[in-house]
Design brief:
DUF4191 domain-containing protein, DUF4191, about 240 residues, about 50% helix, transmembrane, alpha+beta, transmembrane helix
Length: about 240
């Protein structure tokens, strides 16, 4: 008799899509939310080819092999530029989907920071009634407090958090930012670039020291795994 498969055998793991398929999915998502992305990518691809072709005709002196090398270099440069444009536009399209939702700033701080910046995914202050929140990022530009919600409601929250930081780190610059579409606010997709443009005032060791200092002040008492703090009951004293 032929052997049958065990009934309890685990199913095969789902195969991950290839790199080209992933890029195609990213392109489709980006084009859905940003119709100009495909035209910018096409321009970024064709422009280096045209430039390289012009240089080849000018500098190659009629040598076919040299002209072909120039054209290949232009194609490679065009592909690279098109991919860079796709990455930037895809990031902006992804941010547009979460813009205005609670926790959007935390998502950007978790995945969108570069240049040595360290951001907290969880807010350092939250208004339970309005869901307004304040997040914190630390980098070479100092400490940046970022509010999520209308400026009229979050200005006081930012000032309160700034005073707390100034008490423990009086020599560290603290910048206040508000994310939103109001005048004077920073749009969500521009937040990473805004942080990178901050003037550098701290060294890398100082950034680490400031981050550890602030995290230690924010840390709460540890709770054992598997225990819901809302359901913990005080232990009764043993009867003698």
């Amino acid at each position: 008799m032929a052997r049958t498969k065990d009934a309890g055998s685990s199913p095969k793991p789902r195969k991950e899509p290839g790199r080209m398929k992933q890029m195609w999915q990213v392109f489709q998502m980006t084009r859905r939310y940003d119709s100009s992305a495909q035209w910018l990518m096409l321009l970024g691809f064709l422009l280096p080819i045209l430039v390289s072709l012009g240089l080849a005709l000018w500098l190659a002196g009629g040598n076919g092999f040299t002209i072909a090398l120039w054209i290949v270099a232009g194609v490679l440069a065009g592909i690279l530029i098109a991919l860079v444009i796709l990455g930037r536009r895809a990031e902006r399209a992804a941010y547009s989907q979460i813009d205005g939702q609670p926790g959007a700033v935390g998502a950007v701080l978790r995945s969108g920071l570069r240049g040595g910046w360290v951001g907290n995914e969880m807010p350092v202050a939250v208004n339970g009634k309005t869901q307004d929140a304040v997040y914190r990022a630390v980098g070479r530009g100092g400490v940046v407090l970022i509010s999520e919600g209308p400026r009229s409601r979050t200005t006081r929250m930012l000032e309160d958090e700034k005073r707390k930081i100034n008490r423990v780190l009086p020599n560290v610059p603290v910048t206040l930012l508000s994310v939103g579409h109001e005048e004077g606010s920073v749009e969500l997709h521009r937040l990473p670039a805004t942080l990178r443009k901050k003037k550098r005032t701290l060294t890398k060791p100082e950034v680490l020291a400031v981050t550890n200092r602030l995290n230690s002040l924010q840390a709460s008492l540890p709770i054992p795994k598997g225990i819901d703090p809302m359901k913990v009951r005080p232990q009764r004293g043993k009867m003698r």
